[in-house]
Amino acid sequence: METFSSIDAMRAWCREKSISGKTIGLVPTMGALHEGHLSLVHAAKNSCDHCVTSIFVNPTQFAANEDLDQYPRPIEDDLAMLRHAGVEAVFMPTADEMYPGGAERHATSVHPSAVALPLEGVHRPEHFAGVATVVMKLFQAAPSDRAFFGRKDFQQLCVIEHMVRDLNLPIEIVPCDIVREPDGLAMSSRNRYLSDNERQRALCISKSLNLVERAFLDGSRDPKQLESIMGDHLSPCDRVDYAVVVDRQTLLPVPKITRNAVALVAARLGATRLIDNRELETG
Ligand SMILES: Nc1ncnc2c1ncn2[C@@H]1O[C@H](COP(=O)(O)OP(=O)(O)OP(=O)(O)O)[C@@H](O)[C@H]1O
Ligand SMILES: CC(C)(CO)[C@@H](O)C(=O)[O-]
Ligand code: BAL
User: Please, are residues 180 and 206 in contact by the beta-carbon 8 Å criterion?
Assistant: First the structure.
């Protein structure tokens, strides 16, 4: 497995692979890897000739009061997992390599589509501009045929899909299903912040989504009714930023579900903020 910290070297590796007609799959991550990330790697390896994974804790998507400094960086463990998974190249640039002159003075950025505005956009107003910009930069540093993103970060996936569509980027976005712990908790790098008690209480998030799905499958098409089911079961959380059922395309509220929808939750256990969701398909 080769590791690259320079954009030029990473780009040269990708160019060499694609000149010979081979396809490349890119898996962007912030490290602290778990089985959710590895499922993206497996999907990339299954559908592409070569797989590149990036590890970069992107400063421009964190607000000043967020966990940029504490974000876990177990780089040796991450590299061992990627080696074991058969990844051929890892892009792990420094912040200076990605943002010469400093992330805070970085001038040109991607303005994401309106799908970035609700939900996470309300609670993390600069977040998706930072995500879209760094993903655009990762696509330039590691030019690939396909990029793999998890449905766990559902709104992020929408933002990236819109960016690729609106800016005509020559890359296919491949959404990958949410990988969960055996008890239902969505895998997330931030789960490692949880105390035993918080970890136990965090289970109410996936349970509330199970109950919403059950009510939806039983015929409920009233978002308010579904949201109240979620609300009733999220009381073990210390704070609920949102627990909503919205349109799958726009992520905006609808009076009645007539086409595909999605239930999304963001909630805190202690200082840890977790997100999860469940797609509700009208069929
Ligand atoms: N449980 C999961 N199942 C599937 N994909 C996942 C899962 N968790 C993360 N991913 C995906 O992995 C990619 C990298 O995500 P990231 O490195 O931020 O991990 P994370 O676990 O979501 O971290 P965080 O706890 O900071 O949200 C994203 O596309 C994300 O959606
Ligand atoms: C897509 C991403 C790697 C951009 O920094 C990050 O937001 C993540 O890990 O989901
Ligand atoms: N998985 C999304 C990255 C973030 O929360 O910044």
Answer: yes
* Protein residue with least CA distance to atom 21, ligand 1: 188
Confidence class for position 229, pLDDT limits 50, 70, 90? very high
Q: How far does residue 256's CA lie from ligand 3's centre (Å)?
A: 30
Mean pLDDT of the chain: 98
Q: Is 203 helix (H, G, I), strand (E, B) or coil?
A: helix
pLDDT value of residue 283 = 87
Residue 163 has pLDDT above 90, yes or no: yes
Closest alpha carbon to 262 in 126, 181, 151, 163: 151
Is residue 133 a part of any domain in this protein?
yes
Q: Looking at this predicted complex, what is its ipTM?
A: 0.98
Cα maximum dimension of the chain: 56
What CATH number has the domain bearing residue 232? 3.30.1300.10
Active site positions, annotated: 37
Answer yes or no: do 194 and 107 share one domain: no
Extract the annotated binding site for ATP. 30-37, 150-153, 179, 187-190
Give the residue ranges of the annotated binding site for (R)-pantoate: 61, 156
